Structure formats: C-alpha cells, structure tokens
Amino acid sequence: MTDLRKTVETFWATAEARDWDAFAGTLTEDVVYTLPQTRERISGRERYVRFNREYPGDWHLRIERIIAEPGQVVTWSHVTVGLEEMYAISFFTGDESGRIAAVTDFWPEPYEPPVGREHLVERY
Questions:
Q1: Element (H, E) at 50
Q2: For position 2, what pLDDT does the model report?
C-alpha cells in the first residue's frame, strides 16, 4: 500500500498552494467529502476540487499534527481567513493505491468554559 500520510501531506500542501491539478491527483475519482456539522456531502473528485477552488476568502492553513496508520490519517489544522483563526480536524481514508477516498471534516467552534473551574485550569 502506498503511504497515505504522504498523500495527505501533498493534499494540504497543494491546497495551500492552490495547485488544483496536483490537489486532484491526491483523490480517487469517487472521493466522498463529508461535513457532519452542516450535514453536507460532496461526491466525486471534480465537485470536491471545485468546492475547494471556489471557497471564498484568502484562507491559509498550517498542519499542527498528523496521526497516521495504514489506510487512515487524521490531521489537526490551523486555518486563517483574514484575521479569523480556526481549527479543523480531518479524517482521511485511502484506497489501495494510496489516494484519498474519503474525507470527513469537523470545524469546532470556540466557546467560553463553564463557570466554576477557574481554580483548576489555565486559560491560554
């Protein structure tokens, strides 16, 4: 099996570089992209590449962490759009050739912690 971790690293590097042909090369023809929080799904390489190419704003990303095992990779990414900063957790599944067959993205929203635990935590 081809190293899916390297494919995912290329996926993110080519997305950041806006090299959509190379980005498409990391994906299977029938890739499925899922966003559970908004209950959206995109099926197929052409539609998924177009979704990313047309995404609004001058966004940039930096990989914070990659965890990989055969056939599966998880990334934690730091994303900026202008002055806004956010984090994403992405789960990748690969096929036998090492291309990305499925991506599931989670975009958690920051929130203020509940009152009453200030004596236990350090805010950063």
A1: helix 45-53
A2: 66
- Per the rule left: phi > 0, alpha: psi between -120 and 50, beta: everything else, 106 is beta
Give the contacts of 67 (CB within 8 A, at least 6 positions apart): 73, 74, 75
Q: Give the tokens for residue 67.
A: 């965890």
Q: Which two tokens stand for residue 83?
A: 């002055």
Average pLDDT over residues 39-56: 96
pLDDT band at 47 (very low <50, low <70, confident <90, very high): very high
CA separation for the pair 122, 107 (Å, rounded): 23
Whether the per-residue pLDDT at 38 is higher than 80: the answer is yes
